[in-house]
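Fill in residues.
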């Protein structure tokens, strides 16, 4: 049984970790921390977990956390880079759900996250935890940087094209939309239902902190350091889900005929990627609560553009579910353990 700790358990990703791990047959949550809610029973804050946990939130204590086999950090940016190295030095493995270790260029990281990185040696050693790309490295990692939600949907949708050199890399477009839970659980007037209900808007159109993470992954897949990508996120009035519509121009229009089989072959053995029939329109509710990415390919008449639609649940495959998937890989478990429940409908 894997002894698990969670640092920062009161946000949406924290409670999603608790929900998933509650029925995981090989993992047990032994401690969960929150400075603001220390002493409060987990079930009192999250009544959906009544009967599943006899735990209270506690102050973060390195000695207690170091007794765990693995610690998840579901914390604001800047926390994991300070505490994780101490735990790793004491033999505890870490999956960080924040952005602290995702971006290798620390000048870029500092620009987007507004602080200098305090542990550059671990930023270099961390494994970027997209299992569909880095499974072998994740298996042996001490520290896994769990990908962001938008970067997961975008990278999975584009990687087969880039790995095979099929598209022009100077002008890739990712047009993505997310539900409100992607902004976190903190109080924010702009995220009130009265503010976002019956409305739809772009944000971060002049630049978003997920852009360098997306570009880093696409450059790695393509091998083209000059790759250009435009990423524009949008806020839609729903709680969960991301839909990314992706555009890339084929080098050879004749390759359209083999794209469907190429995608199916690339993801055939991936338990959490589902390539739908050509021309399908995956919707976010088809992955709600599940650790799946569903995608489909499209072509408009007489166009050289390939269009990919990719959907995930931002709290599951985009955060907590992928973190548990990474844990399973790290400990040599069946990869879909604890993640086998189908999506919720309606």
């Amino acid at each position: 049984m894997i002894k698990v700790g969670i640092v920062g358990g009161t946000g949406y990703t924290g409670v999603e970790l608790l929900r998933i791990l509650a029925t995981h047959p090989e993992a047990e949550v032994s401690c969960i921390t929150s400075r603001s809610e220390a002493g409060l029973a987990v079930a009192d804050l999250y009544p959906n977990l009544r009967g599943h946990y006899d735990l209270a939130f506690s102050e973060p204590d390195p000695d207690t956390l170091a007794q765990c086999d693995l610690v998840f950090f579901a914390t604001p940016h800047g926390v994991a880079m300070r505490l994780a190295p101490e735990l790793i030095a004491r033999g505890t493995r870490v999956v960080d759900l924040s952005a602290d270790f995702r971006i290798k260029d620390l000048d870029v990281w500092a620009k987007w996250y507004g602080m200098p990185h305090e542990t550059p040696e671990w930023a270099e050693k961390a494994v970027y935890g997209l299992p569909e790309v880095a499974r072998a490295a994740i298996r042996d990692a001490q520290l896994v940087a769990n990908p962001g939600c938008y970067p997961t949907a975008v990278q999975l949708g584009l990687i087969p094209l880039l790995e095979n050199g099929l598209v022009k890399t100077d002008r890739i477009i990712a047009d993505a939309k997310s539900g409100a839970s992607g902004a976190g659980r903190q109080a924010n007037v702009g995220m009130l239902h009265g503010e976002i209900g019956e409305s739809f808007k772009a944000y971060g159109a002049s630049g978003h902190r997920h852009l360098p993470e997306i570009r880093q992954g696409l450059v790695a897949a393509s091998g083209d350091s000059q790759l250009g990508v435009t990423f524009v996120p949008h806020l839609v009035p729903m709680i969960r889900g991301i839909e990314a519509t992706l555009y890339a121009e084929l080098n050879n229009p004749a390759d359209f005929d083999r794209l469907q089989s190429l995608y199916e072959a690339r993801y055939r053995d991936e338990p959490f990627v589902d390539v739908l029939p050509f021309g399908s329109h995956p919707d976010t509710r088809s992955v709600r609560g599940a650790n799946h990415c569903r995608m489909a390919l499209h072509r408009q008449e007489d166009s050289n553009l390939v269009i990919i639609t990719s959907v995930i649940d931002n709290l599951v495959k985009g955060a907590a579910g992928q973190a548990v998937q990474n844990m399973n890989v790290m400990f040599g478990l069946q990869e879909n353990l604890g993640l086998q429940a189908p999506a919720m409908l309606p």
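The longest strand covers residues 242-249.
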